[in-house]
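Input structure tokens:
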């Protein structure tokens, strides 16, 4: 029985079918089907019931999935113990936010360069990614981490400031105090609360505006076009400031830094490839504010 056949079956089970598993693995559907058939023949049991609407796990498949996943995890752990300083191998799947994908791209490329035997697959999207359901080993998240069952490691932080375009300021003035925000239009990522501090006190405001987006660069462009004030990380707003499209405003007050996290699904065994990635990203981003 081939360990890769077991891994492939776990992928099929978790992905909900052969087509989805093939896309995750970057393999042809025919290869996944052939490996699954070989595994079923060796076990003498049907693991997947094929229907006109797709495929579902049989009772035997449901039972075998956890056993196969446990076997794969134990083999991975044994390999790591035998060669703790050796090359990373296999496949590492990483999810990340599209808004700041280019910010992390050099670090991820460097990681792949350091470990040529490791396949690195990334997906950058501003939509929420379910790590376990979609088969990702870990994800990079930027923001204020909500309560969840994910295990998060903070690797750095991003300074936040308030900005507006010169044209907006000419037409509407600039807020000077947190309470002034309610007199202005804001561009935000959905429902947002901004918490300002002057060193002694904190002030929470709920900005209102007609333009919302789930992508940081879209928000920056909207603010640069004069659609409202914007709370944004300096790494994204910086080029707009340099180009004269945005200017910092209300500089007497500060916003809390936004955290950069690597998150993973809970579990006792953390693959060494994930640990090494976290260490590398921490090395690059935790030396100070990005």
């Amino acid at each position: 029985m081939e360990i890769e056949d077991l891994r492939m079956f776990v992928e099929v089970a978790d992905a909900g079918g052969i087509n989805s598993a093939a896309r995750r693995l970057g393999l042809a559907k025919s290869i996944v089907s052939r490996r699954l058939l070989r595994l079923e023949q060796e076990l003498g049991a049907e693991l997947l019931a094929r229907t006109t609407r797709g495929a579902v796990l049989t009772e035997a498949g449901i039972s075998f999935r956890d056993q196969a996943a446990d076997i794969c995890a134990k083999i991975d752990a044994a390999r790591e113990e035998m060669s703790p300083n050796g090359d990373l191998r296999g496949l590492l799947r990483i999810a990340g936010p599209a808004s700041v994908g280019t910010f992390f791209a050099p670090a991820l490329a460097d990681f792949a360069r350091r470990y040529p035997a490791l396949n690195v697959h990334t997906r950058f999207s501003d939509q929420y990614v379910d790590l376990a359901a979609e088969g990702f080993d870990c994800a990079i998240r930027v923001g204020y981490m909500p309560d969840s069952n994910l295990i998060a490691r903070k690797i750095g932080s991003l300074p936040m400031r308030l900005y507006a375009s010169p044209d907006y300021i000419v037409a509407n003035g600039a807020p000077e105090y947190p309470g002034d925000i309610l007199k202005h239009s804001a561009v935000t990522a959905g429902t947002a609360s901004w918490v300002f501090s002057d060193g002694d006190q904190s002030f929470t405001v709920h900005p209102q505006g007609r333009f919302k987006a789930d992508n940081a660069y879209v928000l920056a462009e909207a603010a640069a076009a004069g659609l409202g004030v914007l709370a944004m990380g300096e790494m994204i707003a910086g080029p707009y400031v340099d180009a004269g499209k945005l200017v910092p405003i209300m500089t007497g007050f500060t916003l809390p830094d936004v955290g950069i996290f690597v998150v993973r699904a809970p579990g006792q065994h953390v693959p060494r490839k994930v640990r090494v990635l976290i260490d590398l990203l921490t090395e690059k981003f935790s030396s100070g504010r990005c």
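Residues 160-256 form a domain with the D-Maltodextrin-Binding Protein; domain 2 fold (CATH 3.40.190.290). The chain has three domains: 3-82, 90-158+259-285, 160-256.
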